[in-house]
Amino acid sequence: MNVIDSMGDEPIGNFGLSSLYHLTYCSRAAAGLDKPAVDRLVAVAQRRNPAVGITGMLVFGSGIFFQWLEGPRDEVIKLMTSIKADTRHDTVVELTESEEVRERLFPTWAMELVEPDDVRAVLEDALSSVDDEKNAQALRRLLQQIESSEIGGADKG
Ligand SMILES: Cc1cc2nc3c(=O)[nH]c(=O)nc-3n(C[C@H](O)[C@H](O)[C@H](O)COP(=O)(O)O)c2cc1C
């Protein structure tokens, strides 16, 4: 399946230029947490995030999570407090955060689960269609981060 096909068309939250906060982290999934449990977690996130203007991407593979969260600063920080306390993972390491006036990287993704094998294609596709230089920089940083992490670093292809 092409992950790009699963992108919805409807933008979530304040689309367009406004102050946007982003945060990324990686963590280690709890022992025994399987794909169906991750799918359930994502379904809940997809229901809840639009109400608070949060969009993003969750990568899960080899027992590691990597998540990109973007939205209003207060809401992202509040969600991150819940996420850190969640026993379905541990060793949460915050990687990057910023607050900038720019458009969302994932305006239509309430929370999209992306396979590690697909993450580069997703980011490269987003990079090829972005016009805002700040967004392009954010995407390039994210690509670098993924490539140097356990998630994207496996010797595939
Ligand atoms: C890796 C991971 C990612 C998560 N991402 C989200 C998310 O994007 N949105 C969300 O509402 N909950 C997410 N959750 C679930 C939250 O940790 C929490 O269970 C949920 O927000 C309910 O929190 P509350 O009971 O404190 O309100 C995630 C959990 C994990 C383990």
The neighbouring-strand order within the major sheet is: 4-1-3-2-5
Succession of helices and strands: EHEEHEEHH
CATH architecture: 2-Layer Sandwich
Strand content: 25-35%
Nearest-integer average pLDDT: 86
For the secondary structure, the number of strands is: 5
CATH classification, class level: Alpha Beta
Quote the CATH topology. Alpha-Beta Plaits
Structure notes:
With 157 residues, the chain is α+β, with helices and mostly antiparallel strands. It has a single domain, classed as 2-Layer Sandwich (Alpha-Beta Plaits), CATH 3.30.70. Helices cover 36% and strands 28% of the residues. The protein is built from 4 helices and 5 strands. The protein has helices at 35-48, 73-85, 116-128, 133-148, and strands spanning 18-29, 55-61, 64-71, 89-102, 112-114. It has a 5-stranded mixed β-sheet with strand order 4-1-3-2-5, sandwiched between helices. A hairpin with a 2-residue loop joins strand 2 and strand 3. Helix 3 runs antiparallel to helix 4. The longest helix has 16 residues, at 133-148. The chain is globular. The site of flavin mononucleotide has 15 residues, from helix 1, strand 3 and helix 2. The site of flavin mononucleotide (FMN) has 15 residues, from helix 1, strand 3 and helix 2.
